[in-house]
Amino acid sequence: MNDHPDAPAVRQLRLVVEAEDYEAALTFYRDVLGLPEEAAYSSGDGARVAILDAGRATLEIANPAQKRMIDDVEVGRQVAPRLRVAFEVDDSRETTARLVSAGAAEVAPPTLTPWQSLNSRLDAPAGLHITVFQELATTEEREKLDGFGTS
User: Residue 142 has what pLDDT?
Assistant: First the structure.
């Protein structure tokens, strides 16, 4: 029970991904993308998990029309499955190149979006379809754009 009405009810978002090639996925997300390992657990029967720190987490809920629009803007066609994982980075171009060198398949190169971010799409280890994005404008600057708002 939440005793503090102003405190968030959820303290952490944790996305759990099953990876057939655990070592390759761990190397890609921890060592290449740069998500620090927060904890790791294993058991005698070969079960292993690593919890990687991805900074601040958000859950983006989009209706089908928005999902189609984002695919059209970022890729030019419908490619994303129902679940896509997005990572904010400091340099989309450099990160995209590094991830492709490490085995990700580039679906679309860094593309300027109407909401002023530079977004690329990749098919990455563990079967994830990911976006790497770099914010080029502040929230205040984006609020002045058509179709962008906060509540």
Answer: 80
pLDDT of residue 150: 58
| 98 three-class SS | helix
First to last CA, the chain: 26
Q: How much is the pTM?
A: 0.87
| CA pair distance 68, 70, nearest whole angstrom | 6
Quote the distance between the C-alpha of residue 63 and its chain's center.
18
Tokens of 53: 């720190």
Instruction: List, in order, residues 6 or more apart from 66 with CB less than 8 Å away.
Output: none
Residue 105: closest CA among 35, 19, 28, 31: 28
Predicted confidence (pLDDT) per residue in 22-70, tens digit: 999 999 999 999 999 999 999 989 999 999 999 999 999 999 999 999 9
The token duo for 84 is 């896509």
**Cβ density class 55-81: b for 16+ within 10 Å, e for less:** eeeeeeeeeeeebeebbeebbeeeebe
Bridge partners of 51, per DSSP, are 39
DSSP 101: H
